[in-house]
Amino acid sequence: MEDIHPIPEEIIAMRRLLDSWFENPESGSEELINWLQGYDLPVSESGEEPYLWVLRGLPLTRERAEARRRLANRVGSALKEQPDVHRPGRRPAQVLYNLLMLAAELACPEELAEPVYMMYERSRLSGSYLGLDLWNALRSALAENQLDNRLEKEWFAILEAKGGTKLPGNPAQAYYGLLLMPASPAERGRPNLNALGQALKTMAHHSEKQPDRWLTLQTLRDKITIFGEPLPYEELLLQSQEHRWPAWAVLCLISFATTPSDDLTGWVWTPLIKELQRDYTHKTLRTYHNGHVEKIRASEQTWKFLFAYTSRVEPIIRKAPYSYSFEALRAALDHVESEQLVATG
Question: Which pLDDT tens digit goes with each residue over 162-172?
């Protein structure tokens, strides 16, 4: 059966170029430098940066991981030649930009963390490409290739807008750097929860006066995963408590009532529990935030009531433009109660 989506000839040609380069033990960085200037590529005037074509040369089959590693080794070798000091090629700014963006896209810390970090340490990188400071490309390469937390102070300095940092960037970019930063080499693949707990607090302060602050903070929270799974609710609670998040951020990031587990345990804001009538039973297992949040075990009927109540309370809280205290939840509950009285009066 004929392939409905045949591989373009240009990509096949790029794969052949990469294969030939990999198989030649005497080949150095010269070919890569030429490609990253747009020379000797199977396309001309594509309007795209050359590093994207180098990436397209990687196979899509099970050999991709090995080819990616081999390419990362070659990119690492090119970085060890100190292109920031001995600027290569006819278009050195384009080479440096594409080399660093290629390192960022490969995201292979084992092969690239050290050579990228040494460029950062040398502080010899200068110039711009297409109006973009090359240090922005270096920041991207550093963020994607972290083996440990050696850049933590730099990320937090950008996040907190303290000034005096080597790397350019804004708080959102610094947060992304922290998101990819393991606490140590042994903990690669796991988020550095302590650093991210502090970072979320700082981002909450940055977005405090923004009308879309709830959505902003929830988006940042949802980026934190552990092996692809959302951050456990209790861990989020502990981080918010440890780093003393502002009250509105706790209200924003921690649901008023969570979906209970199989044993019917979950977390609920204490003011909601106080709305429970005699027919609804529960047992408190643990409290957080000075008693504002409780972990409880309750019946299915109780959880159904809590979720129904939450669906009415949360929109009121979201509409309150600048209520920065836990009392905002109590006020919302009072509002719901008054509506019920009017409806039944």
Answer: 888 999 999 99
